[in-house]
Amino acid sequence: MRRFVPSSLHRCAPAAVLASASVRRCHAAEPAAATPGKIKVKIHSDVNKKTKDIVAPTGITLMEAIRDIAKLDMEAACDGTCACSTCHVIFTEASYKTLGEDPTEDELDMLDLAPKVSKTSRLSCQVKLAPEMDGMELTIPDEMENQMSAW
Ligand code: FES
């Protein structure tokens, strides 16, 4: 059963009153908890000159989240087979530490050929989204080089 709470109570009620269950139910100012099976990702695109906050399911690759959910420009020429480096992204240091697995030798070889590589660079097609990555933040650099075009 819902109790009527005067609107003036919402903003300036004493803490003891706000602690009552009926008032807490009316206060929905706190952000919702993370959705199970999904994480938040903040993407800065130097290509599109915009920042997007998305919610993406775990288990897909970061490249798929950027391309299919954020709908930001990313060539991903080899479609995730670690053969082009056009899915290169640069993580914040804090986000890089949440990635878990280190890049493979194949990924490092491909990163060596990408422009604007930093110590927190990864190929987004090689990063599978996981719960511990919730809140990750990264940048898509504005320079890409498709290593497949040399074939
Ligand atoms: S999409 Fe080609 S290396 Fe990631």
From TrEMBL:
Recorded GO MF terms: 2 iron, 2 sulfur cluster binding; electron transfer activity; metal ion binding
Required cofactor names: [2Fe-2S] cluster
Gene Ontology CC entries for this record: mitochondrion
A biological-process GO annotation: P450-containing electron transport chain
Signal peptide: none
UniProt domain 2Fe-2S ferredoxin-type: residue ranges: 37-144
Keywords, alphabetical: 2Fe-2S, Iron, Iron-sulfur, Metal-binding
Metal-binding in keyword set: yes
Domain of life: Eukaryota
Family of this protein: Belongs to the adrenodoxin/putidaredoxin family.
Name by which UniProt lists this protein: Ferredoxin 2fe-2S-like protein
Species this protein is from: Strigomonas culicis
Upper taxonomic lineage: Eukaryota, Discoba, Euglenozoa, Kinetoplastea, Metakinetoplastina
